[in-house]
Amino acid sequence: ASLSSPCSGIRVTKVDWQSLKNGVGHHTEEYPCPELVVRRGQTFTLVLELNRPLEDQETIIFTVETGPQASEDRHTKAVFQISEPEVGKNWTAVKEAETENTVTIGITSPANAVIGRYLMSTRVSTRRKQNDRKLGDFVLLFNPWCPEDDVFLDSEEERQEYVLNDSGIIFRGVEKHIRPQGWNFGQFEEDILNICLSILDRNPLYQDDPASDVSCRHDPIYVTRAISAMVNSNNDRGVVQGQWQGKYGGGTSPLHWRGSVAILQKWFKGRFKPVKYGQCWVFAGVMCTVLRCLGIATRVVSNFNSAHDTDRNLSVDKYVDSFGRTLEDLTEDSMWNFHVWNESWFARQDLGPSYNGWQVLDATPQEESEGVFRCGPASVTAIREGDVHLAHDGPFVFAEVNADYITWLWHENESRERVYSDTKKIGRCISTKAVGSDSRVDITSLYKYPEGSRKERQVYRKAVRKLFSVEASGRRTQLRRAGGRGLWREDLLEPATKPSVTGKFKMLEPPMLGHDLRLALCLANLTSRAQRVRVNLSGATILYTRRPVAEILHESHTVRLGPEKEKKIPITISYSQYKEDLTEDKKILLAAMCLVIKGEKLLVEKDITLEDVITIKVLGPATVGVAVVVKVTVVNPLLETVEDCMLMVEGSGLLQGQLSIDVPSLEPQERASVQFNITPSKSGPRQLQVDLVSPHFPDIKGFVIIHVATAK
């Protein structure tokens, strides 16, 4: 029989995955993988070459499957043939064009399909039994462009920022001095998509029951919760190991990372051994990479004065001595200078449409959730409305932005006394990078009503009621502190007595790294009678969690304040006092316990972040494939000569991997410039990060956005 006879065996001889056309249509052209990457709920095109034309009664049957023990019951396998176009919950194949020996097929997955790596095979239905022919693998991702997908996001500018932007900004510092830090998400770098898919397969739920775990990967709630557990190494061989002691031996300091790519590659190449070390912004940066890579719109959010409420009583109880120094062994709760988490955008089919939108996810291992260190997704709307009983982890997130900060003076006889301290309000300046620019956007109003408003107080009371009714009545006693120090929540709502003296620290000049610190404690007498005040001053270098590292100041003064008069106590902390104990956070906490002679007490605190200088300039226009000169100007912050400094340079689409450049010896406080070339490989806005690294002082970090034009 001739080859064109319907009786002869027909088979697919070649497949063209139309990678370029599909990549542009699905916004996946940046992924460098060999296999096709497409998004669910949207048609992609294949061209099949056959060994002869299809006859009328013949049709092509497709099989797609993902994960082990794939089955149609679990929606991890689908078998479908060329048919008329239809919109629905099933995979479909439609013939778009046909020539003598080729057929162009449009394949559409459901908008709720399981995401991941699929194998596609085909056979032609004839009277003969045919074996399936494997066509190859493709990867299916979430689709924020598809209105039927739970992760649909309606703004193109926001999709460009929260799904496709491969760099970003993480805000750090203190509430009064917020500093941007560049971060290279790098979700389109070599191997990153493959690594992100393997994170899902390393998840303990997959290890226990692979078929069941894969079948849940249609659901962004399930996937994001699994990723939030896997980005930290607690409970599993997750990606990053946390370390908050200020000692980073055997690993990399959290402040040395400039992005997620090196971390993810190290984890993968090291056979899933957790990477040392991370702190909150590292966990958030890595999780943002993974979720953007999988197709879920995600951003990084910083909360200043962030509560870590260990006992779920909505208050951060800090115990101090008569110098205002934190008593570590008594203080279980903490208030971090800042804490960084993620928000991802998707629908909450489990809670109802009013809770759709931004969801908090936090991979920093702070507290266990259902036995695992993970947090979220918690609906931002639910947090704002005080609906803390809704899944997942509402009470913890609500406390991070709403808890009361309460200071207790602990006496040697083990009694305690409430101390007035108005310096700290929890949950301030909640910040994220603006869409399409480097600016900081304050999103505090998404999390809570205006401080002190009637609505804010109503929500707070509602949250307290829900929190204590969610706890079984048998757990109420656990709200008391160990050793009987705890109070009922209602007692905590009564503020400490406002004293008749006020105090505030004021910087007399900007606090620069390597310089002496000059400031004053300004005290004011609010009464019409003279008062004597004993002032106990202490200062310590701290981590960003406000955990003290070493004491650098300890002195007392007695001050006489005239009626309604002010007085300044000058304070100088020399560089030699703090240089040995300064952590890479570059932070110092000052405290003044003011004891008014008739028994009132006032605690005044100030968090200081030391400043530094680095400037980055691009000398000329940047174009793909053309070298351009970058000029970096650095200043030696110290009053001594330093050697062994290096510039560490990184930027997706601007250079391959990392560049390290030696910096010549720097005289005391010398300003010096270093020039080097980069050759951009991708167009559009690109972030270049440059860090000055030295064994003599903490890293000085800078970044610049470079707009790269396509080659003419």
Automatic annotation (TrEMBL):
Secretion signal span: none
GO molecular function, one term: protein-glutamine gamma-glutamyltransferase activity
Reactions it catalyzes: L-glutaminyl-[protein] + L-lysyl-[protein] = [protein]-L-lysyl-N(6)-5-L-glutamyl-[protein] + NH4(+)
Cofactor: binding details: Binds 1 Ca(2+) ion per subunit.
Pfam families the record matches: Transglut_C, Transglut_core, Transglut_N
EC number, UniProt record: 2.3.2.13
Essential cofactor(s): Ca(2+)
Organism superkingdom: Eukaryota
Stretches assigned to the Transglutaminase-like domain: 272-365
Keywords in alphabetical order: Acyltransferase, Calcium, Metal-binding, Transferase
GO cellular component terms, semicolon-separated: cytoplasm
Family listed: Belongs to the transglutaminase superfamily. Transglutaminase family.
Name this protein carries in UniProt: protein-glutamine gamma-glutamyltransferase
Biological source species: Crocuta crocuta
Protein encoded by which gene: Tgm6
